[in-house]
Amino acid sequence: MDLLSEYGLFLAKIATVVIAIAIIAAIIVNVAQRRKQQRGELRVTRLSEQYKEMQEEMAVSLLDPHQQKLWHKAQKKKHKQEAKAAKALAKQGKPAADGRARLYVIDFKGSMDAHEVASLREEVTAVLAVATPQDEVLVRLESPGGVVHGYGLAASQLQRLRERGIPLTVAVDKVAASGGYMMACVASHIVAAPFAIVGSIGVVAQIPNFNRLLKRNDIDVELHTAGQYKRTLTLFGENTEEGREKFREDLNDTHLLFKSFVKEMRPSLNIDEVATGEHWYGVQAKEKGLVDAISTSDDLILDKMKQREVVGVRYLRRKKMMDRFTGSAAESADRLMMRWWQRGEKPLL
């Protein structure tokens, strides 16, 4: 019995130590994951290699079984030789790449609040860390526009490439309107699909007013401000003609800034003709000088692959597992408030 008791006590001690180690390891892993979630993850994809693999797969599928067997044998030999050559270069401390210039591909699909600019700034920073003037950057842009400050910052991120002398091309397959075009015009070359929506160089803002409804129900709303124009139009208060006039003045000032920016980026444009708030399809936009060529991003990339190594750059912000399935209630509430704010006294591009 004493032996069994001692053995049981020994097992209990071992179990306690194991559990303690497991808890400490779980804490360390959890902290590491949280830090990684905050940092996000930069993903670099060699699009040239993906296309080459797809091309080879299609070519092989059209061969008869005997030819496929010979092809696979030849490829195995080729890969073995390439691996041997790369290993030899590595031993000499030389890069294994073929020395071709690169085309870095960034995707930007913008929403109204332009929160995607947080990833864009990381992607641009990553490209600037390694790019040379011989390299190029292609931004596949899709956005109907949104808040002024958000798209202003997004355009500024693309200007960082321009200021470093790195050729920048923007490809519009679907839409680059308003704030989206503010970003696109930074590029030295703009390509649009035939029916892509381009332009809409204008500013809009709207706000509902419930003052009369509240008055009918004997509900008073008090709004106190310090500064004559701290609030020009409100949701619940009684709006004045002076406030409306100031609101329109602010919209016009924003429009003038928008026009000046586009004119600076594309001096050849007849800005008064295109800055009416209208949008045009790709072919029409080319006639007006808003874009430089009619094509899709796919054809553009395939053409660039002939001379350049094409690399996709994407920065992903990690989400918690629970958020992936249920979504974040707080984020949803914030976005709902953002929509109301956007429709209020803050203008949209």
From TrEMBL:
The UniProt record lists the keyword Protease: yes
Domain Peptidase S49 N-terminal proteobacteria: 2-158
Keywords in alphabetical order: Cell membrane, Hydrolase, Membrane, Protease, Serine protease, Transmembrane, Transmembrane helix
Subcellular localization: Cell membrane
Example of a GO biological process term: proteolysis
Molecular function per GO: serine-type endopeptidase activity
InterPro entries (alphabetical): ClpP/crotonase-like_dom_sf (IPR029045), Peptidase_S49 (IPR002142), Peptidase_S49_N_proteobac (IPR013703), S49_SppA_C (IPR047272)
Domain Peptidase S49: 161-310
EC number, as in UniProt: 3.4.21.-
Record-level GO cellular component terms: plasma membrane
Transmembrane segments: 12-32
Family, similarity comment: Belongs to the peptidase S49 family.
PANTHER family cross-referenced by the UniProt entry: PEPTIDASE S49, PROTEASE SOHB-RELATED
UniProt protein name: Protease SohB
Organism: Atlantibacter subterraneus
